[in-house]
Design brief:
Elements lengths: L2 H26 L26
């Protein structure tokens, strides 16, 4: 294994470790109360105020 290959593998390892650490930090610092829920309330068509038939 030559020096260029070792450098490439080290760079790949650093990127993957950085991604894993970033994800762990994101989950560990998540504040559930500060975020909106991911769902949405869909209004039924018959409850819409604008007439869409025209």
């Amino acid at each position: 294994m030559n020096a260029a290959m070792k450098a490439t593998l080290i760079a790949i390892a650093v990127v993957l470790i950085g991604m894993a650490a970033s994800f762990i930090w994101f989950v560990a610092t998540w504040d559930k109360e500060a975020e909106q829920p991911v769902g949405f309330h869909q209004t039924p068509t018959h409850m819409m105020t604008e007439d869409r038939r025209t």
